[in-house]
Amino acid sequence: MELNKTIQNFKEQQKKMHAFDHVMNLLTYDAATGMPPGASDTLSDTLAVMSGESYRLTVSEEYKAMLKVLNEHKEELDFQTRREAEELLEEQEKLAKVPEEEVVAAAKAQNEANHYWEIAKNKNDYELFKPYLAKLIEIQKRYAGYINPDGDVYDTLLNEFEKGMTQKQMDPFFDDIKEKLVPLIAAVQKSSDKPDTSFLSGTFPIEKQKELSAYVMDLMGIDKERCILRETEHPFTTEFSKNDVRITTKYKEDDLTSNLYSVIHESGHAMYELCVSDDLLHSALGHGATTAIHESQSRLWENYIGRSKAFCQLIFPKVKELFPEQMEGVIAEDFYRAVNVARPSLIRTEADELTYSLHVLIRYEMEKKIFNEGLSVDDLPAEWNRLYKEYLGVDVPDDTQGILQDAHWAGGAFGYFPSYALGTAYSAQIMKYLKEVVDLEKCCFEGDFAPVREWLTDRIYKHGMLLTAEELIENTCHEKFDPNYYTKYLTDKFTRLYRL
């Protein structure tokens, strides 16, 4: 009877903690999509107060005792409650090592940095953002020192986004990508059989692009009663619960595919959250398992489905209907080849499939240098530019298109970037097994992706955080993670596209 009461209190505590997260995330979402610039300082103060209250709730003696009791009796708990108790005890013990003033300072610093990052990006003024970035780096170093004083700082930060991820694991993963993809990229650049992309340049009215966004969301099966699309400087998805998921995009009048594939990508993230089991509503486990597993789903929809020939044939009539002048004389095959063009570029979020992971590698190497070698914020732009020249052969013309292009560091998310490449590799392996069961070409021909959603929901989406990334991959693919699926997929696809 006493244990049942503790379980009931534990479930209520999770609802309360979810409510705090809901409010803080809603404020952050509003800051990115609609808040007047002058409100930033007030928001920083509000987030500081809210983060302090959330911190005290998490480290309270009552909550600590509750978790201790549940973990002592975990064999008597149902699977979900046991996993919640295990996960939240780990989180509670970690946060309890961090002083409250550090948690509050981090929340305030992240809001300030986000605000000045956006201004700096629009003004091409890295110097404006630099002091806020320096503050966040020091905060992250202290945070890592609190929660893992004897550990490697960067490994500690990597673990925050992908549990168990270390440089020892990621270094050979990226080395393999470099070894196999750099020569392939060079061969593609030398190919004389390049697609015509001229019809993707021009003027594409934003109102028409919005119609296209709504069309692809409907095609994918996004429930617009529970998911909305808004505009922001840097596209992202945020979820307050499975019944309230927000995705964002950035429209560019001179670039059709930027928004198109941004919306498909973010809708892939949204699909995951919308299909989490109802049993996990308000649970601490009621969202995606890890950042890399989440990224595997956005990249699966964006690239493995969205850039496939069958999908391009499906959506091209709509593209032509909305943009008849721009698409005059263009056929679906032309569109397919154009949206799969492979060429080194400046912007990670708009990079092609073949070069994408090199953009991530550059950020990974820079983060290692920041936390392992003390690379100064003064030297970050020059190092960024050097690596882009070395790995992608492109000259970075300004900081807006260089070091200021991503929002992640402004949010203190050091250690996040590697999960993008890892998730993209996960999706290649997942896709191989999905196609053994689901006739994807038939789904595209009929414009019905219910079989895809149902298969992914059964194997990944519905589980939320109940299963680890390793368990999800093994349950879905019947084998451990194998990055060779990723490099083989890219080699096969681009050898065929460029007739190498």
TrEMBL record:
Role of this protein: Broad specificity carboxypetidase that releases amino acids sequentially from the C-terminus, including neutral, aromatic, polar and basic residues.
Amino-acid positions noted as binding Zn(2+) in the UniProt annotation, renumbered to this chain: H265, H269, E295
CDD domains per record: M32_Taq (cd06460)
Pfam families assigned: Peptidase_M32
Required co-factors: Zn(2+)
InterPro entries reported in the protein's UniProt record: Peptidase_M32_Taq
List of catalytic residues: E266
Family, similarity comment: Belongs to the peptidase M32 family.
Known EC number: 3.4.17.19
GO MF term list: metal ion binding; metallocarboxypeptidase activity
Protein name, per record: Metal-dependent carboxypeptidase
Assigned keywords, A-Z: Carboxypeptidase, Hydrolase, Metal-binding, Metalloprotease, Protease, Zinc
Origin species: Emergencia timonensis
GO biological process per UniProt: proteolysis
Keyword flag Zinc: yes
Cofactor stoichiometry and binding remark: Binds 1 zinc ion per subunit.
Reactions catalysed, as given in the entry: Release of a C-terminal amino acid with broad specificity, except for -Pro
Top-rank taxon: Bacteria
